[in-house]
Amino acid sequence: MKLLKKLIAVLAFAPALALASGATFPLDRAPDRSTDMAALQNGAKLFVNYCLNCHSASAMRYNRLRDIGLTEDQIKDNLLFTGEKVGDLMKTTLAPKDAKAWFGAVPPDLSVIARAKASDAGSGADWIYTYLRTYYKDDSRPTGWNNMVFPSVGMPHVLWELQGVRTAKFVEEKDPHDESKSVHKFSGFEKVTAGTLSPAEYDSAVGDLVAYLQWMGEPAQSTRKRLGVWVLIFLASLATLAWRLNASYWKEVK
């Protein structure tokens, strides 16, 4: 019951979160890997290794990962590190008090984050995909990092070893609406140090992580879509049969 109340609260605030996330920075289209089991499995590995240290996914159990092709032994050997059981919920060991002291706020639960971040600017997957690829070094921030999609973000760049370190370049341009003023405009990133992955490999890894977050928000979505096709076919057949029966019934009356 408590978990249900949390999910209702998150979904109730989803429109507000989406509005807040609708930043002026353009969103890139996230690759669709919702049915790619290898990508979902790699995304689950990245999630457990890099996200679950601070964020929880309290609506997801480890054993649900069997739906993306993992066995219980694979889950135990590769995704359980601190004594959890396969049937446990994906919860972080980070205490809320410590999280607030270190980051200024308790990191949000990520169970339905891919749905909560959807907006007119793009899907939640697009938002997360762009967000995780637009971090840059900013020594003026407490964490040393900033983000183009989420300016002044409190979360550090946890994937920096994979992507490497970059700085953002900005230029001053005249305001098109007021020539007496200038605007601070982003003009690109500049690499400082390379990561363990190439840019293409990093983008692909983020795509896998985003695919997993999408799947986690609704693990049954593939089944729902597959059944939906058959339901529509059945309804179309039923409507055709009813139409012909109706025509046959009223033929003599007319």
CATH class: Mainly Alpha
Number of helices: 10
Total domains = 1
Helix- and strand-based class? alpha+beta
What spatial order of strands do you see in the largest sheet? 1-2
- The parts where pLDDT drops under 50 for at least 5 residues are 3-23
Give the topology.
Elements: H1 2-12, H2 14-21, H3 37-51, E1 57-61, H4 72-79, E2 89-90, H5 96-103, H6 113-116, H7 124-131, E3 135-137, E4 145-147, H8 160-163, E5 164-175, E6 178-194, H9 199-217, H10 221-251
Antiparallel strand pairs: 1-2, 3-4, 5-6
Helix pairs in contact: 3-9, 7-9
Give the key terms:
disordered N terminus; 254 residues; Cytochrome Bc1 Complex, Chain D, domain 2; two-stranded antiparallel sheet
What does this entry look like structurally?
The protein is α+β, with helices and mostly antiparallel strands. Helix content is 46%, strand content 17%. The protein is built from 10 helices and 6 strands, in the order H-H-H-E-H-E-H-H-H-E-E-H-E-E-H-H. It has helices spanning 2-12, 14-21, 37-51, 72-79, 96-103, 113-116, 124-131, 160-163, 199-217, 221-251; strands spanning 57-61, 89-90, 135-137, 145-147, 164-175, 178-194. The protein has a two-stranded antiparallel ribbon with strand order 1-2. Strand 3 (135-137) and strand 4 form a beta hairpin. Residues 3-23 have low confidence and may be disordered.
